[in-house]
Design brief:
The chain has 218 residues and is of the alpha/beta class. 28% of the residues lie in helices and 31% in strands. It has seven helices and eleven strands. A six-stranded mixed sheet has the order 2-3-1-4-11-5, with helices on both faces. A five-stranded mixed sheet has the order 8-7-9-6-10. Strand 2 and strand 3 form a beta hairpin. The longest helix has 14 residues. Bound molecules: 1-O-pyrophosphono-5-O-phosphono-alpha-D-ribofuranose (PRP). 1-O-pyrophosphono-5-O-phosphono-alpha-D-ribofuranose binds next to strand 9 and helix 5.
C-alpha cells in the first residue's frame, strides 16, 4: 500500500470559524488544543487524523495555498473563489456557512440615480475583478481602488462614491452612514480541493470530501 503523506487542510481566519469548527467536529476532524489558544504563535496544527494537519491563514491565502497544491483541501468563500478564479481549485461542496452577500453601498444621503449614466466610476473594494465585471455589464468602467479592509471609510473621506464589500448583518454599513444599493451575488463558503491532489492523493482527499458531504444537507 502506498504511504499516506501528511496532507494540509487550510481554513480561513475570522468569523467563519465559529461555524466551521463545529462542522469540522461533526465531520470527525478536530485540531490539537493549541489551535484554540489565542496566545499561540503556531501556524500549523496537528489534527485527530494522523495524516491531516491544519493551517489557519487569511481568506485569500486559502485560495493561494490550495491553487498551488501547498494545501490539498481548504475552505473558501464564494467571494474569494470568484475573485481568485483559478482552474486549479475544485469546489465540490457548498458548506452553506458564512452566508452573506457581496454588495454595492453608498453614503446614506447620496443620490445615485444618475450614476448609471456615467461611463466611469471609482470604487473602493477588496474585489477589483468582480467589481470591474459587475460595472462592465452596465457599460460603466470601474476604476477600482484596492483596500484590504475598512473600505466603509472610503466614501466619507472622498476616496470614492461607491464601495463593494461583504454585507452580513448590515451593522458595519449602518454604523458608517452607508446604505446597500445593489446585491452583486449571495455568498457562502465552499469546501475546495487542489485538482492535482485529487488525483495524486485520491483516497485521502476523497475521505475528507465524503466526511463533509455526510454533514451538509444539499
Ligand atoms: C466584513 C466585511 C464588512 C463586515 C460586514 O469584514 O468586510 O466590513 O464584515 O459585516 P456586517 O454586515 O455583519 O456588519 P470582517 O469583519 O470579516 O473583517 P475584514 O474587514 O478583516 O474582512
Amino acid at each position: 500500500m502506498a504511504e499516506r503523506q501528511t496532507q494540509i487542510f487550510a481554513i480561513p481566519k475570522g468569523r467563519i470559524q465559529e461555524e466551521l469548527i463545529p462542522l469540522m467536529k461533526k465531520a470527525g476532524i478536530t485540531p490539537e488544543e493549541e489551535f484554540f489558544d489565542p496566545n499561540s504563535r503556531k501556524l500549523r496544527f496537528k489534527t485527530n487524523l494522523p495524516d491531516w494537519e491544519m493551517i489557519r491563514v487569511r481568506s485569500f491565502d486559502v485560495a493561494t495555498f490550495v491553487a498551488f497544491g501547498a494545501a490539498s483541501i481548504g475552505v473558501c468563500g464564494k467571494d474569494v473563489l470568484m475573485e481568485y478564479d483559478s482552474q486549479d481549485i475544485y469546489t465540490p461542496i457548498d458548506l452553506n456557512i458564512g452566508l452573506c452577500r457581496l454588495s454595492v453601498a453608498i453614503e446614506n444621503d447620496y443620490d445615485d440615480s444618475k450614476d448609471t449614466m456615467l461611463s466611469h466610476i471609482r470604487v473602493a473594494t477588496k474585489y477589483p475583478t468582480i467589481t470591474r465585471q459587475h460595472y462592465e455589464k452596465k457599460g460603466i468602467q470601474a476604476e477600482c481602488v484596492k483596500l484590504n479592509g475598512a473600505m466603509e471609510l472610503a466614501p466619507s473621506l472622498g476616496l470614492c462614491r461607491h464601495i463593494v464589500d461583504l454585507v452580513s448583518s448590515g451593522n458595519t454599513l449602518k454604523a458608517n452612514n452607508l446604505k446597500e444599493v445593489e446585491t452583486i451575488t449571495p455568498i457562502s463558503s465552499y469546501l475546495v480541493a487542489n485538482r492535482t491532489a485529487l488525483k495524486t492523493h485520491l483516497n485521502q482527499v476523497n475521505d475528507i470530501i465524503n466526511r463533509f458531504k455526510e454533514q451538509v444537507i444539499v
